[in-house]
Write a structure and sequence with these properties.
This protein is an all-alpha fold. Helix content is 72%, strand content 0%. The relative contact order is 0.15.
């Protein structure tokens, strides 16, 4: 008996088996734990998906004058090619993180890659200014699904410690480099190939990532009986940002003191203040006179995009990543 106790019991699983079980439990699907090599191969794929979403923030900047000439963009609307991506990305990031945790992180990653890749193809084929701006918005939506899902998978694949720290260090370095790479790639592609290829550039990468993701990336999700989402909150805050950018872009023509400009800026300020103040309140009974339909839809939802009562969770990494 004493010998059995000293050795952990005759029926006790080996330490490696117990560690694998803990990793499988963290993934939330009961899948067998990955080896170190499998984890790093999956990580490489996730980094590639992350890079193409970051590169697209800046890759169009150098090409804007060429795009304006070829598609006959009004100069006041040309900036919309840039802002459409950033606004939809920021507006739907929280919703993307929440959906990834509950629906499945690999599933949302692949859905985001499909949206992003198709929108990139559409952007390269665009023959009209409005269509290009819509495709850029769709690219931003795809990126908002890809990024939190990818980072959450990374957090769940690697245990806390040196291996996770190494992965996150690489992740942060690649993200910092992505903006510079986008500027350089945009200039080279526009000069030597054509502006369309700043969008076509994403297509083969996205297709390859979609083919490899089911083979390399493990599925995981948060086990929760409450599968409620807050799409209205994400849409409303995105609308508030769009109103703000439109007001700023039109102000030089309409006048900063014009009724149109003042009204739009006031609506944006009221909606955003009400939304974030109520969202961050620790009490469900909090009331603000500035609350608008946007804030009410976002904060009274039974499964809000960002819960008012914050409880750290080891497995709810996608929502936390989106909030940072």
């Amino acid at each position: 008996m004493q010998n059995a106790l000293r050795t952990g019991g005759a029926g006790a699983p080996p330490a490696g088996t117990r560690a694998a079980g803990r990793t499988a439990a963290r993934l939330g699907t009961g899948q067998p734990a990955q080896t170190s090599g499998q984890r790093w191969r999956a990580f490489a794929l996730l980094v590639v998906a992350y890079v193409i979403t970051i590169v697209d923030f800046t890759i169009v900047n150098v090409a804007l004058p060429t795009i304006g000439r070829k598609l006959h963009f009004p100069e006041s609307d040309l900036q919309g090619v840039v802002t459409a991506y950033g606004l939809t990305f920021a507006g739907f990031l929280l919703l993307g993180g929440r959906a990834a945790d509950l629906l499945g992180r690999r599933r949302l990653l692949m859905a985001g890659l499909v949206v992003f890749t198709c929108a990139s193809l559409g952007g390269g084929l665009a023959a009209a200014d409005t269509f290009l701006i819509v495709m850029r918005g769709m690219q931003g939506l795809g990126a908002a699904l890809v990024l939190p899902a990818a980072l959450s998978i990374v957090m769940n694949m690697f245990s806390e410690g040196a291996e996770r720290n190494k992965a996150l260090g690489i992740w942060g370095g690649v993200g910092a480099l992505g903006g510079t790479v986008g500027l350089l790639a945009g200039g080279v592609l526009t000069t030597y190939v054509g502006w369309q290829y700043i969008f076509f550039f994403n297509v083969p990468i996205g297709v390859a990532a979609l083919v490899l993701a089911p083979k390399l990336v493990p599925e995981s999700r948060v086990g929760s009986p409450h599968r409620r989402y807050d799409p209205f909150g994400a849409i409303s805050i995105t609308a508030a940002l769009l109103v703000f950018v439109y007001a700023i872009s039109q102000a030089p023509q309409a006048g900063w003191a014009a009724a149109q400009t003042v009204a739009m800026l006031s609506c944006r300020a009221a909606g955003s203040a009400g939304f974030w103040s109520r969202l961050g309140s620790g009490s469900p009974s909090a009331r603000l006179p500035l609350s608008t339909a946007a804030s009410l839809l976002g904060c009274r939802a039974r499964g809000p995009t960002s819960p008012m009562r914050w409880r750290p969770s080891r497995t709810g990494a996608a929502s936390r990543a989106a909030c940072r």
